[in-house]
Amino acid sequence: RKEVEQDPGPFNVPEGATVAFNCTYSNSASQSFFWYRQDCRKEPKLLMSVYSSGNEDGRFTAQLNRASQYISLLIRDSKLSDSATYLCVVSWKGYSTLTFGKGTMLLVSP
Amino acid sequence: EPEVTQTPSHQVTQMGQEVILRCVPISNHLYFYWYRQILGQKVEFLVSFYNNEISEKSEIFDDQFSVERPDGSNFTLKIRSTKLEDSAMYFCASSVLSPELPTGELFFGEGSRLTVL
Q1: What is the predicted pLDDT for the residue at B114?
Q2: Is A98 touching B (CB cutoff 8 A)?
Q3: Per residue in B66-106, pLDDT tens?
Q4: Cα–Cα distance between A89 and A34 in angstroms, integer?
Q5: DSSP readout, A45-110?
Q6: pLDDT tens-digit profile of A13-36?
Q7: For chains A and B, what is the number of CB pairs under 8 angstroms?
Q8: A7-16, A42-51, B97-106 — which is least confidently predicted?
Q9: B-chain residues within 8 Å CB-CB of A102?
Q10: Which of A52, B1, B44, B117 is the most exposed, having the fewest neighbouring CB atoms within 10 Å of its CB?
Q11: B41 pLDDT more than 90
Q12: Which region among A8-17, A30-39, A98-107 has the lowest average model confidence (pLDDT)?
C-alpha cells in the first residue's frame, strides 16, 4: 500500500500566525518526501524537499520522522499569499512516481 | 524559466469520442508523467515514461489510455473512448532525475481540463 494521509483543513489563521501541518504515510519503503503547494485550479508546485535531518527555507521548516512515518511543515509569520493547499508527497523505493496526499487547505486572513 | 506546456487548456468532448492531450516537457528532462485531478479530489498518478517506454502505470491507466512521444519534444496522452468519469484536469510533468531522489522535483504544466458530456 502506498498511501499518504493529510488533514484536509481548512486551517484558518490570521496574518503573522504560525501554523503546522502533519502528514502520515503508509509504507516504510518510502524514499523521498516533498511538500508541494497548489493554488486553486492551478498546477502543483514544489515548495520544498524534506530531508532526514529536517530543513528550513525562510519561513518554512520541514521535518521527517521515519520511525513514526510522518512529515511536518511549519509556516512562520503567515502571509496572505500563503493561502493555498499544501500537498504532502512521497516517493517509494523502486518506483519512479510520486504519491500525493489530498492536501491541507490554508486560509490566511488579514 | 523553462516550463512544461500543455495544450489544449480546456477541451469539451462527447462521451465515446477520442481525445489527445499534448505536452511539451522541459527540454533536458528525462522522465515524463501524466497525472489527473478530478475536481475536489487528490492528484492521481496515471503513467510515467522513461527511455521511450512506459516505466509505470496505475490502475486508472487501462486499455483506453495510451501515451506516445512521437518526436523529441512532444509527449501525448490519448483517451480512446472517453467516459463521463474521465472529466478531470490532466497534468503533464517532467523531471531531470527520478523522483526516488530528494532532488527529483517534478515540474508540472498548467493542465488540460477535460469535460466529457
Answers
A1: 98
A2: yes
A3: 999 988 789 999 999 999 999 999 999 999 887 777 677 89
A4: 5
A5: EEEEEE-TT-EEETTEEEEEETTTTEEEEEE-S--GGG-EEEEEEEEETT---EEE---EEEEEE-
A6: 999 999 999 999 987 777 789 999
A7: 68
A8: B97-106
A9: 41-42
A10: B1
A11: yes
A12: A30-39
Q: Which long-range contacts (CB under 8 A, 24 or more apart) does A48-55 make?
A: A49/B102, A49/B103, A49/B105, A50/B102, A51/B102
pLDDT > 70: percent of chain B = 99
- Confirm if B20 and B6 have CB atoms less than 8 A apart: no
Q: What is the mean pLDDT of chain B?
A: 93
Of B41, B56, B107, the CB nearest to A97: B56
Strand pairing partners for B43?
Answer: B37
Q: What are phi and psi of B85, to 5 degrees?
A: -75, -5
- Going by C-beta distance under 8 Å and a sequence separation of 6 or more, which residues neighbour residue B17? B81, B82
CA distances from A100 to A5, B76, B117 (A): 9, 22, 28
- Of A71, A76, A64, nearest to A21 by C-alpha is A71
Indicate yes or no: CB of B104 within 8 angstroms of CB of A91: yes
Q: In the numeric block, which cell numbers belong to residue A92?
A: 517509494
Measured in Å, how far apart are chain B's first and last C-alpha atoms?
Answer: 36
Of B80, B68, B66, the closest CA to residue B15 belongs to: B80
Helix (H, G, I), strand (E, B) or coil at B103: coil
